[in-house]
Amino acid sequence: MAEKYAETFEMEEDTQKGKFLTFSLGKEVYAIEIKFVTEIIGIQPITEVPELPAYVKGIINLRGKIIPVMDVRLRFKKEPAEYNDRTCIIVVEVRDISVGLIVDNVSEVLSISDENIVPPPDMNRGSENKYIKAIGKVGNDVKIILDCEKLMNDKDVKTISEKTKFE
Amino acid sequence: MDDEVNTLDSSLEKDPMLELFVFETNELISQLENIALASEKENAVESRINEIFRIVHTVKGSAAMMNFDNISFLSHTLEDAFYFLREERPQNVDYSSLADIILKSTDFIKNEVNQIQSGNYPNHDVSAIVREINEFLASLKDGSDCAKREDKKALLSLEKRDEIQEGAGGNRFRALLFFENGCEMENIRAFNVLHSLKKVADIIGYSPKDIIEDQGSVEAIRKNGFEIEFSTELGADDVRTILSDTIFLKDLKLETVGTAKTGRPSEEKSNMETENAKLAIKQSMISVNVSKLDRLMDLVGELVISQAMVIHNPELEGLGLNSFSKASRQLQKVTNEMQDAVMSMRMVPLSATFRKMHRIVRDMGKKLNKEVELEIIGEETEVDKNIIEHLTDPLIHLVRNAVDHGIEPAGERSNKGKPSAGRITLEAKNEGGDVWIIVRDDGRGLDKKSILQKARQRELIKKPEDELTDREIYSYIFLPGFSTNEEVTEFSGRGVGMDVVNKNIEEVGGTVQVDSAPGAGTAVSIKIPLTLAIIDGMKVKVGKSVYIIPITSIKESFRVQKSAIIRDEAGSGEMMIFRGDCCPILRLHEFFKVKPDTANLEEGIIVVVENESKFICLFADELMGVQQVVVKALPRYIKKVKGVSGCAVMGNGGVSLIIDISGMIDSS
Which residues of B touch A163 (CB under 8 A)? Predict the structure, then answer.
């Protein structure tokens, strides 16, 4: 039974491998691995929660499940933008934790083969750089592939919990 | 982590069989424990022996199936002991040591199951306890004159489990198997046959009995064949095919046996009937994974929201649809009922938790040499499943404390003119929306003086001592590290127990209070909400946001006159007099950093809330009415936020934060 399970799991992995969802923030196009994406929804009323870092806008109700939403623009220290009907929330799930990512708009699903993916340039650790997993080449374009786990987890979760502990 | 651990760990997640095994075994073991305690009390085991057999056998069977050899071996040994008890009915049984043995075995199995649960392979050494059981059995055998019946025993083994078989329907067969000459290891082959048969049939008995350990069984099988009696749903032909698959099979005789038993004493027959009746009750219960119930509740919550979206759809406004509103009222009624039904599914009676205390009272009484009786009242009271989990530990600590500190030694008691046996009462009752659980003992009561002294030592007393009420003094015992016991004993003295009680109860939104009278005893009362999942909440509006205040903590709400507001010298803190006390005003818009409609105290509304007799005035724009809300935890990603205890999905699909009153009071 365990083998069968592993098999189907592998197949699922396979169909998702090399596929990326791209979205844009202003002029840049970013990509995340499709295996993390649960769904894409339009912007919804967000309930603010105090004491959170500014980029966590609050919580939303996703069919009975309460999930936090993060403004990726603010996360990357970009200028905030007004939400409009193009604004989307990409719901990603990493290690059983669901988070909504607010992005300007969602573009497409791309296949990028392994040989077209290169490690990020080793610049002097810019503020954005730490979320970049790799660079994908598609034709003449370059897509920035984000590290979903770092985007969500990283040290931020810790700072939130520590902050409340000390207060 | 080594490989073996890993394999089991991952399999526990995937393997529903393992999950079921853990659940079932835990359940059975606690049943067995209760039976052991009851039979010790009554000094008799006969009336319960079939029940014991059923439990031990089921444990053995499922453990063997899951390949947990030590558990199945232990239960097998236990079965042997009970088999002797049932068949020989020895007169001089020491029921106390019998109970000891059963309890030791259940402890061992519990331990193993815990290990399985935490993802490790259960591999503790079982031999010590097996030896103990065997010694007990040997002492029983010595005691009763049964040597001549030993032979009979072998024959009887065929009838073993007759009464306890769980009403397996279908046909009964007796099969006689002969293996080919010189195939060797006949006993192992016989065991294999049993094993493959178990999948499709209920084995009732077989002969020779001890096929694995007794080397003589090889000879016996060679000579007389291997005889199995079993019942199954399958027909004779199917059974024959299965048995014929056995390797080295020389000869197979299969005969059908009638299910009706003749010549059985009527007493045992009635026993069987009651067994069946019990089974009928059991079958009307099913165990469901809690996560499924949670899912169902989420869905019902969603349904309520979608219903509101349809019924209050803006496109319908002003249309005056008569039959539509009639139909929608009907729908509303059904969904309300559905919500109640789902909620009631999560309710579990306290009886299992309460009964665990019997064991603790017994063990501690034995160790401390005190005679203690435990009385249980209202065990059928139901509370939410999540709350029950938080109740076990506090109750254990309270009961332990009662036995250890509360109840005096027998000598001291009779000097005081009390009955020599101490009495602990465990009571549960419903009162309004709350459940009260009271642990009462008739012991020496709390020593107010030494509590005060200790509190003084540790500088815990914040106000003049003569203003302290008794309850306030007693409540010091809940502080961590507070113990008036000079010595640290096995059971208490480190001052941890009561702290655990307090923490656990607080976690489920309950409160604890202590009453005591010197010489007459102590009563610890725990008040807990019936359920955590749905609360009545008052919606308050602050700017665009809506917050929910639990209705139970609201004392009053009113508009305030400017003259009633007091400012302190710095001009920052605002206060007002409420029922003779000065209580601080907390502006919700400042706390949550949102933009209010009005910052003028006279234009908004003041809501006075209370927690543990501390008051605080919350300032909001306006009240929006009462609503039952389904409480949900904040997403894990956010962790804990001060002043917010959770969130709730509102009728319009939006999310509101539920205000944590105690957190707010602490922060002000």
Answer: none
